[in-house]
Amino acid sequence: MRGAAVAIMFAAAVATSAARAETLEEKMAPCLACHGEKGASEIENTPSLGGQTAPYALIQIFMFREKLRVFDIMNDMTKPLTDDDLRAISDAIPKLPPPPPLADAGDAARIEHGRALLQQHRCYFCHRPDLAGAENVPRIGAQREDYLTKTLREYKSNTRRGYDASMAEVLQPLSDQDILDLAYTVARHK
Prior knowledge:
This protein is mostly helical. 56% of the residues lie in helices and 0% in strands. The chain contains ten helices and no strands. Helix 3 packs across helix 4 (72-78). It starts with a helix and ends with a helix. The model has no long low-confidence stretch (mean pLDDT 90).
């Protein structure tokens, strides 16, 4: 938890310099400080951006800039960005290497349950069989397990509103254990 607090303080300091940033690298520095220089976040409940689809990234940073998604640090960091900045950053994000799946093989029963849920609830239809996403659908394969759990719970409770209500609908019949097993499986997806 302490590492997360330090990263948030660092990101806030970097955000104040974002308005003065000139190059794409300077504008991306605050993003990479929390989301991982090599595409994989090391901060609790902070998503990895590596390999994310450009259209999805663009939509998300636009939503943060316009406060359609509210998270103060992200809102502050994206506020000075122009539309051209948003496009340049969202085009750079897919070039970061995708995060590696968790190294441990995991519990076979939980993974089998997670795979059955992925199939039953047609997650592969939008997120694709490789879970790499497409267009405005995010890459979820090998995403941080804690972030996946948090996000799925937020979609189910409708506290995270997206631009599409399908996630809330899909998650309604799932139990919390189902959500835990889904996140567990997706985080280990190769």
